[in-house]
UniProtKB/TrEMBL annotation, chains A, B:
This is Alkyldihydroxyacetonephosphate synthase. One of its GO terms (biological process) is lipid biosynthetic process. It comes from Sinimarinibacterium flocculans. Keywords: FAD, Flavoprotein. The active site is at 448 (proton donor/acceptor). FAD binds at residues 116-122, 197-200. Substrate binds at residue 387. Residues 84-264 form the FAD-binding PCMH-type domain. Belongs to the FAD-binding oxidoreductase/transferase type 4 family. The keyword Flavoprotein applies. Its cofactor is FAD. It comes from the Bacteria.
Length: 530, 530
């Protein structure tokens, strides 16, 4: 069973050994185990639904609570403390576009606001229920989880928008196809959710961002059905797919999507490469992407993340051997780990691996073989489980991510970590901040930072600590010209920073677009803009 | 000097030999040389400018006429017949963003409508001046033709939006970079024009469409300056670059653009491959693009275009030798020519060429070497000159293009040619219709058809003939689910067919977007939608 107040299945834990615990204590101090609420308390405290009886929405308390929150920091504090806050008054679970459209029509008739629900994995508050004096409903697409059709000549497949990652790939595999979208939320996040939040997967270098995969979509809007896209490319005016991408529920419910597919590759391997310092490593990565090597992933950890990953891995003896080997090759303190992946035909993989490792070598990188890559790939979706383990030891964790052009990349990375330290210094606390570049482009890269700090215990104090951190870090991102999000979206947490990026006219445009399809403003209010 | 009523420089002709003339006569009948108007007549007949004296616009007759029209069929008929129709009352020629913004502000103060002008190469009526009882001005960006900055780490360059193709590439070359956008209009069309019409170049397979190249832009809008884009990728809401792309002047004047660059390749070669029939050829092309071969171009002519190109080439002796060779290889009537290009490092080119030719061979394709490819590449921008030569022999020519998924491609191609024949049959005339696939995607391809028919002599009859053709063909495109344009844009000629593609809600959205930035509707009215 999926955890109601954390990440992953109840049965699945991320074990932190003594060495890892010592490392954390050394970096941020000793944590104090929290006293979390239990689900039963939360259910008992839930206010009654404000929907009239007979309204076509499920109103069972458990269902309402399980759809109330995502995975943002405020979501975690709410669920762990039992102060869940506003919940929808009812949940619709349509099984088809028509049922979804009916649910939306019912919501309108009832004067209810609508918060669409996909996989519940948002980390920026896309699911936040506004505290209003009118009913709110969730329309969850979780039952729309099937492959609807495959076109094996145009390499397209259509899906119910609520299909989660593993079901996307499993249903395609029997047709010899794959999509190739692997965000860390993959076990639960859905194909429709990826589209409306402009998601990016770990192997975007090969498979592209969701924008490149999304061929067409069908929406239920307050003004009726709307379809976008369908052809490979067009010059017939602005591309309306791009309005749906990143719309975060503001223009309607995305119910069905058609996605561009790839054939299953013959081979795939992941490789660890260590560099003596950050400057060499980032130069190597830029050289690889600007040489158009057909790699499927380049993921470069900075010094602190490299050390952290090795210390938390739980294999101290192996790490000592690794360090002995790297030491002989001139790689010591300040080392940075690159994880690279090659995917394709056997010949392509052999060639690409050779070309990439040659570039790495020119930048003093040392290939440590496939073993470390295999481990990384096996655990690629387990990272978020660490958050549970940390929480139970009294530590809070959050992440931010951005994207910027190459000349600004290192400066912004340092500024993000510094802003985090400054924010916590104001709290008289330490923070452990570490970063990797997760997606690379010829023009620049994304920057993904993780923060670990001690929980404050009291939920208000915890939220206050986080708010200082989030605002300082977000201001640093904006000041350096980074986007406020490269892959997580805007939700409510990033909404204050969106105008810096879109400009006043751009914000007016976004509002005009939403107003046109949702004149009464019932669709996911407060997300993207208020 | 550039032709005022046709394509290209006055000094540059496309010679049609006896064999070519015989071929045309055989296909559509003998043409009658037209009696075209001369510029002086047109200038003398031009109504006086309605701008008040002292308005900051050039009102010289010659300048106004030279900005009045593009290269659409109605544009040609207007210029050749001397019935130029509505002209702008004045032309602004700003040299900077600020001057462009001032010109726009002046237009607003004067109550004038604004028709932006780039390279004057539109083939769908983007430059049409509406016949209204108020002044109209052109704001031409032709003086904004310079490289403004290069970022050699992020591989970006910014340009004045009026920079034409050859100046884009020449200015980049000294920095070791290139853009790689080669539409057939390349000698005159501008980087800003490419963006606002969603252009695609001949080597889009390597370099991408203009959407992929356009990093950021600066616009002067009736509501003030607006900037879009800037980072490599973002999930911060809808991508507003995509509103500018294809906006066709409706949201403001695009004055400066930043484009994503590529390094100059080590090598490039073009290769002709002949297939025995269309079915084999199209299967081969689809196999190549779905195998992710890093080709830079795949351009497949159908049977009729293949024959036409060979007959118009003007080297009958060489063609006979070619046919003898192809005949020995089992390729005879029904043959289809594929032009493919490989671009990149020496090693990449060698490998890609080998892989592509292996796929061709599996589909019974015969490589005829680089000679034919060299000729094609040398003449790649000369195609439009043929229109002058045809016109002077009494023939009219026009093109349409679309894009569709693979399963519909052949059916739509046949339907387009059939619709053209049907339209002309109603006129009791013959038409020579031929087609190539010019851009290919894993999902599908673009389809580009050319029509040659006899000029009707009288401009009204000529237009009527074309209108029947254009509407029948456009209806066939819409009926088969093709986009109304893959690379030429919408302008006025395609506007009636846009709602079929965007839907009623989509059209409302486009109008809402334009209204938001241009509340008084002064920007290029009638284009995209009325």
């Amino acid at each position: 069973m999926r955890r109601w107040n954390g990440w992953g299945e109840d049965s699945d834990d991320y074990a932190l050994g003594d060495d890892a615990r010592a490392f954390l204590k050394d970096r941020v101090g000793a944590g104090t185990a929290p006293r979390d609420a239990v689900l039963q308390q939360v259910l008992e405290a839930l206010p009654a639904s404000r929907l009239p009886s007979g309204a076509p929405f499920e109103t069972e308390a458990r269902l309402r609570v399980l759809h109330a929150r995502g995975q943002s920091f405020p979501d975690w504090v709410a669920l762990r403390s039992g102060r869940v806050g506003p919940c929808a008054d009812g949940v619709a679970l349509p099984s088809s576009h028509d049922e979804a459209a009916q649910a939306l029509a019912s919501a309108r008739r009832l004067g209810a606001l609508v918060v669409p629900y996909g996989g519940g994995t948002s980390v920026v508050g896309h699911l936040a229920v506004p505290p209003v004096d009118r009913p709110v409903v969730n329309i969850s697409l979780e039952r729309m989880n099937r492959l609807l059709s495959v076109d094996d000549k145009a390499w397209l497949a259509s899906f119910g928008a609520g299909t989660p990652g593993p079901q996307v790939e499993a249903q395609l595999r029997s047709h010899g196809f794959m999509l190739g979208h692997f965000p860390q939320s993959y076990p639960y996040s859905t194909v429709g959710g990826w589209v409306v939040t402009r998601s990016s997967g770990q192997q975007s270098l090969r498979y592209g961002r969701i924008e490149q995969m999304f061929a067409s979509g069908r929406l239920a809007t307050p003004r009726g059905q709307w379809s976008v896209g369908g052809v490979p490319a067009s010059s017939a005016g602005p591309d309306l797919r791009e309005i749906v991408l990143g719309s975060e529920g503001r223009v309607g419910l995305l119910t069905e999507v058609s996605m561009r597919l790839r054939r299953l590759p013959e081979e795939e391997s992941f490789h660890g490469v260590f560099f003596p310092d950050w400057a060499s490593a980032v130069d190597a990565v830029r050289a690889m992407v600007q040489a158009d090597l057909p790699l499927s992933m380049l993921r470069l950890s900075n010094e602190i993340e490299t050390e952290t990953q090795l210390r938390l891995a739980g294999h101290p003896q192996m790490i000592r051997w690794l360090q002995r080997y790297l030491g002989m090759r001139g790689i010591d303190r300040g080392q940075c780990m690159l994880m690279l992946a090659v995917t394709g035909t056997l010949a392509e993989c052999r060639r690409t691996r050779r070309d990439a490792l040659a570039i790495a070598k020119r930048h003093r990188g040392v290939h440590v073989g496939k073993g470390m890559g295999k481990t990384w790939a096996r655990n690629r979706f387990r990272g978020p489980l660490l958050r549970n383990a940390l929480w139970e030891l009294g530590y809070a964790a959050d992440t931010v991510e951005t994207c910027v052009n190459w000349p600004a990349a290192t400066g912004l990375m340092r500024a993000i970590e510094q802003a985090a330290h400054d924010a916590m210094a104001a709290e008289n606390e330490r923070i452990h901040a570490f970063t990797h570049l997760s997606h690379v482009y010829r023009q620049g890269c994304s920057i993904y930072s993780t923060f670990v700090f001690r929980s404050a215990g009291d939920p208000d104090a915890n939220l206050e600590r986080w708010r200082k951190l989030k605002s300082r870090v977000s201001e640093a991102i904006v000041a350096h010209g980074g986007t406020i999000s490269h892959q997580h979206g805007v939700g409510v947490d990033h909404a204050p920073y969106l105008p810096a990026e879109k400009g006043a006219l751009g914000m007016d445009l976004l509002r005009a677009v939403a107003r046109e399809l949702d004149p009464d403003g019932i669709m996911n209010p407060g997300k993207l803009f208020s």
